[in-house]
Design brief:
42% of the residues lie in helices and 26% in strands. By secondary structure, it is an alpha+beta fold. It has 3 domains: 109 residues, Roll (PH-domain like); 54 residues; 84 residues, PH-domain like. A hairpin with a 5-residue loop joins strand 6 and strand 7. The longest helix is centred in the middle third of the chain and has 25 residues. It is flat.
Length: 282
Amino acid sequence: MNEPRVYKHSPVIIVIFILMLVGFIVLLSSGIFDGGLVEIALLLLLFGLIFSVVVFSYSSKTTLSDDEISSQNIFGTRTLRWTEVHRVSGRGYNIKLHNFDEDVTVAPSPQLPHYEEIVEQIGEKRPDLFSPQEFSEMKRGFGFLAGIGVLVLAVIGFAVFFTLQIGDLFSSNFFFIVIALLVVFAFVIYKIVATVPMSVILEGHHLFLKYLVGQRTLPADEIKFIRLSYTQSRNGKIYFVEVSLVNGRALRLSGLSPNLPTAYLVLKNWHKSHALNRQTNP
């Protein structure tokens, strides 16, 4: 990387929102909107809040060079030399870089275009921060278990509600519909419990995936590659760690602690080290 690379949003989005704000103000001042001062003030406040969030999100910028990383938003710019980075933290898709004195933090926005490239560069510049020995176990957060609990309670509540409302459920025409819905809910819960890992454990040459029910072991030589990928939704990008297997199948890992970028870089370093060992010691 000879020239610094800048990651930022296109200014077109901010310009569009500015035009929308101006148009909204013109619309209110023209008298077309028939509302009181309170309604108009609330609408302006709501639109102003939305505009502020958009400006804050889309004005962020991250610059990478051979020597340093800097992150900029409407509140200013923070810069760290790669040699100054002491540790990483963060939650979800966010990764934060801290210096030794803990007074400077650089946090690239996950909403930036090509965010996965920023994560890759962080891992390449400071691979020592993502040691498989330090992060030998990465767990899924409590929110996932809470979500499953809510889903189970919803199924139970659904069954109780129909039992009370219908009365004699077994003689009702709704019996088979209720049973079919319960079977669908039970299947969804089973798929979540059986296919979503609760934790990832790295022990030597093996990767262990622990589920609520059961465990799966993957030797390093059964894994073709590991990469940070995403799917695009209406609400933005949904990131996950893709574990591609030699047999052509792939696993998706998400929600791992301490954050997804760190989990990805740890898994990548683990797989890379064992791939090198296989090449040097066939």
